Amino acid sequence: MYRIDFNKLRFLICDDNPHMRRILRTLLHSFGAREVYESEDGATALEMYTHYVPDIVITDWSMPIFDGLELAQMIRQPESKGNPYAPIIMLTGHSEKRRVTVARDAGVTEFLAKPISAKGLYQRIMNVVANPRPFIKTKTYFGPDRRRNTTNTYIGPERRGSGEVEVLQQPSLLEKARSTI
Amino acid sequence: MAKDKPGTIEVKSFGTHHVITQPNPLRKMLLRVPESDLDDPVGRAEKALAGLSGEFKEWMTIEADRLSAAHAAVMREGFNDKTREELFRAAHDIKGDAATFGYPSAAAAAESLCRIIEHAPDLGAVPQQLIAHHINAVQAIVRNRTKLDTAVVAGVLSKQLRGIADEFLTHANRDRPEHLEAILAPSIAPAE
């Protein structure tokens, strides 16, 4: 059996709602985390991400200045100086399936729909700590492998091919962040 | 840990993509413990959350009042980017937080309001009373929660509001299939 040594993990939480930040902080401290940094908007979160180099980011979706989705896109810049591989857990009141797809395509590692529970949060953290997925870089995507399962019975078109690689730089959202700070 | 440098990154290149694998930098945060280990971090966190519950009523009142203030701004100025955004954000926060605070019916009413704001083709054409009823429902659920008979009433109220809102949205989006699909799609939020 495994459990997480939380007191060595560094968290960055990003939520514009002070009550939700308090709840998150309480849960993480109760798990045993000692280093929990907080921001109330995406721009500050990006600054803190660069400065504190957290192990795990937990972010809301809807926020002022720029939102959690844009934050994820900015972190997932393969050529950036910061760590583009940190697990990102999207904790959000958005509970529609299409939102999960959009978040996944922005490079989010795990999606957790509110209302938050201690068990749900712990499971997501356990998943990113114990079972990290490889990263995929394509012309339009950089992030954790979106295929969680492999199946031998798949009969649709194969979107990933073989042959020569052409890598295009993703448009940088960093400029947008800078212009709003 | 983040302070350490990540291990060697392995990149396999294919025709349309690269697969990038690196040794799990968080692996050392996993501790192997015997099955008899009694540590229960989830239980501990649930207790800590319960310890906060004395503040939930006050927090919920603040959230409900923020929603009412956002609605008052809409009534004064009409819908513009700023008033729409604030009304949506206030409702969206209640949708996400209220069940944690012990007000699941307020969360349901707020979710219904979020759907109206997100999917109505023209917010100016939404009957004012439909929006006002959602605001009033949230306030009523929050203010009257301590009464023993209100839980059932609150549940019925939020379900009826959702039914009316969905009927309106389905009709208003009859020519917008992408919105119709979103309106009719099931939620992935955990059930109450």
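qc> Residues 150-172 of chain B form the longest helix (23 residues).
qc> done
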